[in-house]
Amino acid sequence: MINGLSPAKFLEITREKFNKMVIESKPMMCWFSTTEGCNLKCKYCFAESHAPLEDELSTSEALKVIDNIAEAGTQAIVFGGGEPSLRMDLLEIANYAVKRHGMMAALNTNGQLLADKHYVRALASVGFSQIKISVDGLKDSHDWNRGKRTFEKCIQALKNCVEEEFPSIWLIATISKLNFDEIRELTKLGIELGVDVGMVQLLPIGRGQASKDLMLSKEQTREWQRILVEQKKIHGASRVLFEDRYQISEDEHALNISIDPKRVGTFVDSPAGCVTGIWQYIIGADGQVYVGDIVAPETCIGNLRENKLSDLWRKSDLVNLLKDRDKLKGKCGRCELRFVCGGCRRMAYSLTGDIMASDPQCWYEPRLGKD
Predict the structure, then answer these.
(1) Helix 150-164 to helix 117-126 angle, to the nearest 10 degrees?
(2) Disulfide check for 83: which of 5, 38, 42, 362 has CB 3.0–4.6 Å away?
(3) pTM of the model
């Protein structure tokens, strides 16, 4: 039984909710890789960033892209990279998205330039709703990946952001075998600094392909989720944030949300698990559009220099495929939790080359047909 329901009944309820939620879903959440340039060279950078592309969007092109995606229904934009703070026109582009189109703007950064209080003050004047600063473990673990003395700058950057009172500030960590034993201490550090804590898994893409040995095992992935559910109970559900696709099998509260008829779900409060192909997409520094959060030739659906995002999204066979969770393969395809989890499509693609494959990192064993 799942929260008093048979697996078959749970599947029936969540399938109906999911289909109502995604049938007319729009590309509402954008990750905009503003540049491939970066001032660090992290050992397991999924974007493999280092130098800018030769044909990155100009300022005027970037502003036209903002108009384009706003017309398609985008409500939230995360400025990432590379390192977005290296773009001299970042503030102009972000200001345009916020003031002209009313978008919620977030910044995903390595934090090095945000150790400067004047720069953080300039970010605050633009109207960023959220700042995410990468801290990959305690000092030694972080500096091993990102470079000597980068940890101190990240901590100063977080303090500067707290001082400027951004609505949402995250310490965000990539979890691997290197920092697995530091999860509780890292969470405590963020809470003591007065920021929220977010965690994601190391992925074997980009430079991460050379660090496959640092990926969590299935057992560690499950323990990581259990620790974070525990930390949520200690510090508050809104203070500890993580990828919820696996959480669903460990957290009774999450299961209750998924079957509550009053919780229809939106792109910011979704019981759908993985949102690849549902609301989320990436714009590359050259204007290419990728489904979900997977940058690969197979996931590219066009370029915004020549096309409208609304047209690309509506006509994409891949987007329509990802909305049909009954077409998931392997264990994910026969799992009663597929409409509230769906596995990690990026992990599946990274490890198998098939975006619809079963998630190799999932420990959960489907109960459908067994109870």
Answers:
(1) 50
(2) 38
(3) 0.92
User: Which of these, 270, 278, 285, 273, lies nearest to 336 by C-alpha position?
Assistant: 273
Task: Select from 31, 35, 119, 120 the least CA-distant residue to 79.
Answer: 31
Token pair for residue 371?
Answer: 């109870």
In contact, 294 and 276? CB cutoff 8 Å: yes
Residue 346's alpha-carbon distances to 23, 135, 235, in angstroms, are 22, 22, 29
**What is the C-alpha to C-alpha distance for residues 128 and 116, in angstroms, rounded to an integer?**
17
Amino acid at 240: V
Written as tens digits, the pLDDT of the chain (371 aa) is 666 788 898 899 889 888 888 877 899 999 999 999 999 999 888 777 789 999 999 999 999 999 999 999 999 999 999 999 999 999 999 999 999 999 999 999 999 999 999 999 999 999 999 999 999 999 999 999 999 999 999 999 999 999 999 999 999 999 999 999 999 999 999 999 999 999 999 988 888 787 889 999 999 988 998 898 899 889 998 899 876 555 565 666 556 655 565 554 444 445 678 888 888 999 999 999 999 888 899 999 999 999 999 999 999 999 999 999 999 999 999 999 899 889 999 999 999 999 999 999 988 889 886 65
Q: Where are the domains of the chain?
A: 26-324
In this structure, CATH architecture of domain 26-324: Alpha-Beta Barrel (3.20)
- E strand or H helix at 196: strand 196-201
